[in-house]
TrEMBL record:
It comes from Acorus gramineus (Dwarf sweet flag). InterPro entries: APS, APS_kinase_dom, P-loop_NTPase. Its EC number is 2.7.1.25. GO terms for cellular component: cytoplasm. Pathway: Sulfur metabolism; hydrogen sulfide biosynthesis; sulfite from sulfate: step 2/3. CDD domains: APSK. It catalyses: adenosine 5'-phosphosulfate + ATP = 3'-phosphoadenylyl sulfate + ADP + H(+). It comes from the Eukaryota. Belongs to the APS kinase family. This is Adenylyl-sulfate kinase. GO terms for biological process: cysteine biosynthetic process; sulfate assimilation.
Length: 207
């Protein structure tokens, strides 16, 4: 009988250096900042600005970007529903490892399905999964269209494009929401500032 997905004869290996030792070394607490939203909503911009801001404060972070991971770890996956599920599952597991290493792991993926994001959340201790929703209207994302993908999707040249002919399920209870104020999107520094403030108040920026 196959034991795929069901570990048989496999035992957890404990080591003497633990997460709290690594956190002491780094003077920070490991966590996952999970950025979700439509293509063009500003996920990568926020991820990079936040990464730079944390770096300048002497905090160790690392970005897991959906686009980039699809060049390597996830290059066998397409955009059909079951592959998106597997994409998020894998990145959730990797993000968990980075958080266990003591890093502030910034995951930036469309991650369109609520259930999959909740499964990633469930992998981490309480409050260590910080979901950031890029709440940008589709019209704004489509007007930006930096890669020309919306244009291709509208022309029917890409099938199953999120927001056009594939679903996006917004979070119901995210920790942070980034949205327009009076029709204007906050600049990248303000978006990152919102996340840094949250991390600071929650005690992640010191051990
Ligand atoms: N069909 C379809 N739907 C959505 N996005 C598409 C598609 N095909 C290619 N792309 C490009 O892939 C990037 C999203 O990859 P992700 O791994 O984040 O997607 S997902 O979480 O598995 O849904 C996404 O990058 P971002 O624009 O940075 O979001 C797109 O550039
Ligand atoms: N806060 C912002 N204000 C104005 N333009 C932005 C902002 N954030 C991102 N952009 C622009 O929107 C486009 C899409 O941003 P990007 O970070 O690549 O989105 P995503 O990773 O969600 O696809 C880029 O051209 C980027 O420069």
């Amino acid at each position: 009988m196959s034991s795929l997905g069901n570990p048989v004869n496999i035992f957890w290996q404990e080591c003497s250096v633990g997460k709290s030792d690594r956190q002491k070394l780094l003077n920070q607490k490991g966590c996952v900042v999970w950025i979700t939203g439509l293509s063009g909503s500003g996920k990568s911009t926020l991820a990079c600005t936040l990464d730079r801001e944390l770096h300048s404060r002497g905090k160790l972070s690392y970005i897991l970007d959906g686009d980039n991971l699809r060049h390597g770890l996830n290059k066998d996956l397409s955009f059909k529903a079951e592959d998106r599920v597997e994409n998020i599952r894998r990145v959730g597991e990797v993000a968990k490892l980075f958080a266990d290493a003591g890093l502030i792991c910034i995951a930036s993926l469309i991650s369109p399905y609520r259930k999959d994001r909740d499964s990633c959340r469930a992998l981490l201790p309480n409050k260590n999964f910080i979901e950031v929703y890029m709440n940008m209207p589709l019209e704004v994302c489509e007007a930006r269209d930096p890669k020309g993908l919306y244009k291709l999707a509208r022309a029917g040249k890409i099938k199953g494009f999120t927001g056009i002919d594939d679903p996006y399920e917004p979070p119901l209870n995210c920790e942070i929401e980034i949205k327009q104020e009076n029709g204007i999107c906050p600049p990248p520094s303000a978006m990152a500032g919102q996340v840094v403030s949250y991390l600071n108040v929650q005690g992640f920026l010191h051990e």
